[in-house]
Write a structure and sequence with these properties.
single chain, 640 residues, alpha+beta, Ribosomal Protein S8, Chain: A, domain 1, 4 domains, 7-stranded antiparallel beta sheet, 14 helices, 21% helix, Outer-membrane type III secretion protein HrcC, cell outer membrane
Length: 640
């Protein structure tokens, strides 16, 4: 026991204990609301073996629980999975006790690279350069990385609970902030219980987030790595193979086909007087427009919905014909739902700012830009489209303050709306003045020099108020699975036929390459039967259907050969020159629907009476499923 016989002053309790320990030769630390004091002579060291993957995780865990003290020694040997600790005996004992509870991987279960190819979703991020900013659409790899990394999100993406629980907790498994909105996982069919258990395993050992507060973890992020293979559109995960099933289940829910939506935009300027008359015909009572009583009058809505887009377009074409409206642009763009589509017509000027020694050049961009993010909805069996719209309309003018510097006038609209399929969303409210100089003159007399301008011509300037309208018409095209849904007015069977041919090629029924055909022709010229082909008895084609020999040449179908395999074959016929002049065998005349290659041997030019073999590579004939049986007509004398 010691006796305090001096006054010690300190700014804090920690400083007081430090000065007291220096005076009376003891060391101290606090853990779990308990003060531990021991003589300085009882300082000890220990070598603690843990798994190599848990070295950094142990340090983070001890810091989070408040045990690790920077005043005492701490070192790691990550390649050996060893932790070196030095301090009071009780402190070393507590650290050793915690290190025993760190879960190590199963014996023989080492980290490996797991590859997940994606079919519909994008593995890498998509960056859209938009004016002076960038729009980033996260890919599957970034989503997984955010799930496993709590350094920036505290266990959540954009403040939302990843597991859809919405409750208070810590790290990934806890759900983030107490009042954070939950992510609607049920709509995509995610098994949140299984996902939670899997993420808990990842976090408890070598994961990317901490279960005890969501603080920084350098070790977890180094143990599990997620990256995107852009070339193969695949996600690469470096983790334990035993967790492959968990990742596979999550990626399967993310890699789903999305709907394709075409957005047709019409940008036009219209005279406000004509617009007022147009609004009287398209009022609320007519049932064709949902909005205010009149279009874009003062005090009414400048956004409305048109159900009969065709009739409205006819009205606009009529106004365009008499000069009351002018179409600025009519772009159309196809995009996936929930993916932003950007249309930008801009002009850039450069503003020069000069100081005493430095001159800076700043770009100024203005114009018409349209950013739309569509989403398909189903309301009582009726398809609808939600549009999230951001519009910027502006122009570069001469500054009123400095004639040598440009000025920018801009207008911005940001809104979202839900409209029926094939309906249109009309956005207005962008006003402007247009000056038109008109010349009125008497025919012929007005063209007389000097006198005509003075006596028979008059000039006038008309100022008209214009309003710019943005008309957006979304159309559901289909999804990423069936391209035939792209064909609305054409023949979908053509697309189906192409899809069947693609499927046949994937199943091994590929057509021969140019090298394959050359190899077969060379073998036949050398007098050998083609490898992999059997000798057929007769030609499956008529010679006239294979080639049109042209004037002076005949094809002898009696002397022919046929070598075939499953998908294609080679027909050999004899061509003879029956004229008294040299005639060339024109390979382009052998262009039937089944022909894929033609060659003549030994000569393409035939002298009078000379013969050559003609090799014709053809596809095996197939009966078209679209062929129909002939039906005799019931009308007398009529032919089917």
């Amino acid at each position: 026991p010691g006796v305090l016989d001096d006054r010690i002053r300190a700014q804090s309790p920690e400083e007081f204990l430090d000065r007291l320990g220096q005076e009376y030769h003891f060391q101290w630390f606090v853990y779990n609301d308990t003060l531990y004091v021991s003589p300085s002579s009882e300082h000890t060291s220990a070598r603690i073996e843990v798994s190599s993957d848990a070295v950094d995780d142990l340090q983070t865990a001890l810091t989070d629980v408040g045990l690790l003290d920077k005043r005492f020694g701490w070192g790691v040997l990550p390649n050996e999975g060893v932790v070196l600790v030095r301090g009071p005996a009780k402190y070393v004992e507590l650290v050793r006790d915690y290190s025993k509870k760190v879960e190590a991987p199963e014996k023989g279960d080492k980290q490996d690279i797991i590859v997940f190819p994606l079919k519909y979703a994008s593995a890498a991020d998509r960056t859209i350069r938009y004016r002076d900013q960038q729009l980033v659409v996260a890919g599957v790899a970034s989503i997984l990385q955010d799930l496993l990394d709590t350094r920036s999100h505290g266990g959540s993406i954009n403040g939302m609970d990843l597991l859809g629980r919405g409750g208070r907790g810590n790290g990934l498994a806890g759900g983030g902030a107490p009042d954070a909105p939950s992510l609607p996982m049920s709509s995509s069919g995610l098994d949140t219980n299984a996902l939670e258990q899997g993420l808990d395993q990842v976090l408890h050992y070598g994961g990317g987030g901490s279960k005890s507060g969501g603080k920084s973890r350098s070790g977890g992020r180094a143990n599990i790595r997620v990256t995107a293979d852009v070339r193969n559109n695949a996600v690469l995960i470096y983790d334990l193979p035993s967790r492959k099933a968990m990742y596979e289940k999550l990626i399967k829910e993310l890699d789903v086909s999305r709907n394709l939506i075409e957005i047709d935009a019409v940008i036009l300027d219209i005279d406000r007087n004509e617009l007022a008359e147009l609004s009287s015909r398209w009022n609320f009572n007519a049932g064709s427009v949902n909005g205010g009583a009149n279009m874009f009058d003062a005090g009414t809505s400048s956004t409305l919905f048109i159900q009969n887009a065709g009739k409205f377009a006819a009205e606009l074409h009529a106004l365009e014909g008499n000069g009351s409206a002018s179409v600025i642009g009519n772009p159309s763009i196809l995009t996936l739902e929930n993916q932003p589509a950007v249309i930008d017509f801009s002009r850039t000027e450069y503003l020069t700012a000069t100081s005493e020694r430095v001159a800076n050049i700043e770009p100024i961009t203005a114009g018409t830009s349209l950013q739309v993010t569509p989403r398909s909805l189903d309301h009582d069996g009726k398809p609808q489209v939600q549009l999230i719209v951001d519009i910027e309309d502006g122009q570069i003018d001469i500054s009123d303050i400095n004639d040598t510097q440009p000025s920018v006038r801009k207008g911005n609209v940001s809104t979202q709306a839900v409209i029926a399929e094939h309906g249109s969303l009309v956005i207005g409210g962008f006003h402007g003045l247009e000056a038109n100089d008109k010349i009125h003159k008497v025919p012929l007399l007005g063209d007389i020099p000097y006198v005509g301008k003075l006596l028979f011509q008059s000039r006038s300037r008309e100022l008209s108020q214009r309003e710019r309208l943005f008309i957006l018409t979304p159309r559901l095209i289909g999804d990423q699975v069936n391209p035939a849904r792209y064909v609305q007015n054409g023949n979908p069977r053509d697309v189906d036929d192409k899809m069947k041919r693609i499927k046949e090629r994937r199943d091994g029924g590929e057509l021969p390459t140019r090298g394959d055909i050359q190899k077969v022709f060379t073998q036949m010229v050398d007098g050998a039967a083609p490898e992999g082909m059997h000798d057929g008895e007769t030609l499956p084609f008529e010679t006239d259907s294979l080639c049109d020999p042209g004037q002076g040449l005949t094809l002898d179908g009696q002397r022919s050969q046929w070598y075939a395999r499953k998908d294609w074959g080679v027909a050999v016929v004899v061509a003879r020159n029956n004229t008294d002049k040299p005639v060339r065998i024109d390979e382009s005349r052998c262009g039937g629907r089944w022909v894929i290659g033609v060659a003549a041997w030994p000569h393409a030019w035939l002298q009078p009476g000379e013969e050559s073999e003609v090799y014709i590579a053809v596809r095996q004939p197939q009966i078209s499923k679209m062929a129909k049986e002939s039906r005799p007509s019931l009308l007398r004398g009529a032919k089917p």
